[in-house]
## 1
Amino acid sequence: MFNFLKNPKFRVGLFIFSALAALFIFVVFYLILANNYSEVDKQENEDLEYADENYYDNGKLVYKVPDLGDILTGPIISSLDPMQGNIEAPVSIVIFADFECNFCRNQEKIIQEVFEKYKDKVKLIWKDYPEDNKESISYIAAVAARCAYQQDSFWDYHDKLFSVDISNVDDLIKVAEDLDLNTNKFKECLEGPEAQRLVDDNIEEANALNINGVPFIYINDQEIMGEMNFEDLEKIVEIEIKK
């Protein structure tokens, strides 16, 4: 009845058909499996992107440049600011002040007395913290003192400003003339950006340190707000020297 099964040609054809059918089933199964894996990978990638977005949104990774206030824990001491004394001295007195501040004027006299007594152990650094208004005499006086600094006469100019009444730019130029500064260079400096930039940097630094009034003094890490008498300042300096 099934004698055709005994035919060699038929058996070869059947074998080839079976092999092709098996190959077809394997290919279909592989494609289905590959597609499933692809969907899983896609979902995992989508989840990863979503997680990354949350990660950035939650601030867990921060790529922004930090603000000055995020970095500073104390005043910056560099050659950009006027300094008196031994640069290697163990005690730094940093004063943020305003030439138009009467409290600063009084505190400066006391600081100078302490500095003169401990000159070998102390360095004194000036920081400008005038009114943040480029039209004010407070701000312009700070710029003028920086212009005197360019001619190596900051402290003489500083002392003079605290000893006279200043009401306008002409008064500031008159002080420069009294100190025999090069008035042409001084006037150019007053109108230029360099000295203003130094004053602005000090203002930014004071704001970053959350200083909200002057005079404000740092004796190493010790912070002092407002006026202090000679005895109290001296005690703090002596404590810092002995550390």
## 2
Amino acid sequence: MGHIDLPGVEALLTAALDEDIGRGDVTTRLTVPEDRRGAAFLLAKEEAVVAGLPLIASVFRLAGGDVDVAYEAQESERVRAERVLCRMRGRARTLLSGERVALNFVQQLSGVATLTRRFVDAVAGTRARIVDTRKTVPGLRVLQKYAIRVGGGGNHRFGLDDGILIKDNHIAAAGGICAAVQSARAGAPHGLKIEVECDTLTQVDQALAAGADIVMLDNMSPELLREAVAKIGGRARVEASGGITLDNVRRVAETGVDLISIGALTHSARAVDISMGWAS
């Protein structure tokens, strides 16, 4: 299994190990002989969509090296409880010192991927695509958005520099939707889409009149969403956001929206229960 080739990941893993190990793993150093070899495995304790597995080998390499990792599950695979994800063999001190950091990443990313897959499955057969937001854990955005893709979802803009999304406070500060869109259009790089957040049908009319490429319908009921989609009539892409849950996402998708953005995919995903067991 290859590594996760994303910017900043190695530095992130290094920082996590530095945070956890600090001046040294005193427990392991005092109890485990330096030349001791060992074998361990990661076990999923519940059903999950696994994400972040390639990080395991990277964590142990950075934690001291001399550990071989054999994967028994694939990235994005839906696994059952009690499934062994991988087996590790090598220097016992490295295995013990890197354990928590490896687990923290795989548990957190698998939680995001698992929750994303549930939403994706819930809207299957509709035109709607599940996407994330910028409501990520600070510093973990690149990996959380990776886990969204592993779970079958899509990524909204990564940061403030790669997309124009005119929200309520921008509208208030700019003096209205028309003024905000006109200013954005005048200065936007070629090809960059302009999206406008709308709370009402009146704002939808204003966004369309201003020439918005994407209209975000914020916190609207399924009935109002359906009316807005009909009003837009294909003149812009339509995104629904706000208050989306597993209980209502299917109804939202059936209104005909193109995208459904859900902050909970990253800010509220529960870590999957995964443990490391000692095999020798």
